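During the reporting period the student researcher (J.K.) took over the structure-prediction task from the postdoctoral fellow and processed the backlog of single-chain submissions. One of the processed entries is reproduced below for the supervisory committee.
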Amino acid sequence: MTDWTDTETFTRALERAEIREKGNCFEDFAEGDLIEHYPGLTLTRWGNESWMSQTLNHDPAYWRTDAAAARGFDEPPIHPDYLTAATLGITVEDLSEKGGYFLGRTDVRFPGTPVYAGTELRVESEVVNTATSSSRPQYGIVSWRTRGLDAETGNVLCSYERTNMIPRRQSVETDGGAETAPEDDEREDDKDLPAEFLTPEGGYFEDFVAALEESDGRDAAVAYRHERGRTQDDVTVASLPLATLNTAKQHHNADVMGDSPSGGIVTYGDVTRSTALGHARSDEQTWREVGFDDETFHTFVASGDTVYAFTRVLEATEDASSDEAGIVRFEHIAFNQDDEPVYSGIRTAEIEKRSSD
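J.K. obtained the following structure tokens:
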């Protein structure tokens, strides 16, 4: 039986696995398109104060009830900087996650009345212009008009126009020809891996069923890698464990950990796990988590390491108790920037059916 978490085997699997990409390319945008961004978020006092404290915005009206009242507010309101950042942040996956230069933002406007914590923010963007870049032919230029709305009232809370360079799917520039990948039968070191790697067309239950049916009776696996990675920093290594009351020295005491095999503090295993699962869930329509089995942490993750994720779809079955979702069993493998597995586990989840929309 193939050990998918063996480092050499896993590295070869990664070379052959398709990446489930995130974001859109220049060709995906057309003038007049209206994009409703999902998800929205609820503006909270914690989020507001975290943003202001980390950016050194200390206006007392946004911190203290007495100062807020003196300025005519019912309570400390949401700061416009946090509101703007939240409105833009929600759009990134649909508009600019592929990368490209942020060329500017203009006409940023707010309502005359204050916005308070607890407001549910919904965001939409309209494509107002697309153009070819004369200086960078592998990019196009896209402008959007974005509106952050109160989900309950529909009132506009924040609006602006921004422009980005966006990578083209088909670059105008060519490299003179692509390399030819070796045929599977020429790769003797891959004999312990399936001959084919298949990728579901989407993230709904029916997509996983179709991919498994396609692989049935063939030397194939439904296996793919996720595009996102998350580099570990002070927040993930130290702050997140403390938020769960995890005071283990492995995450907080650099003095003691200096003599350990890692040579320093390391990431809480559940942060590594949750990061990898977050990458995976971004490519599926999760309805409900059912459970996890056979979880293993293969090596430590330290500050500066990047956590990626790889998924195998093992099984998909109907759920007799639900018309909205079916049950899918996955194997998830988290790996680092050196393609070394750092976590693996079997996950069972209810995945939404397309017909339930």
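The committee noted the following: The first strand starts at residue 18 and ends at 20.
J.K. will present the remaining backlog at the next meeting.
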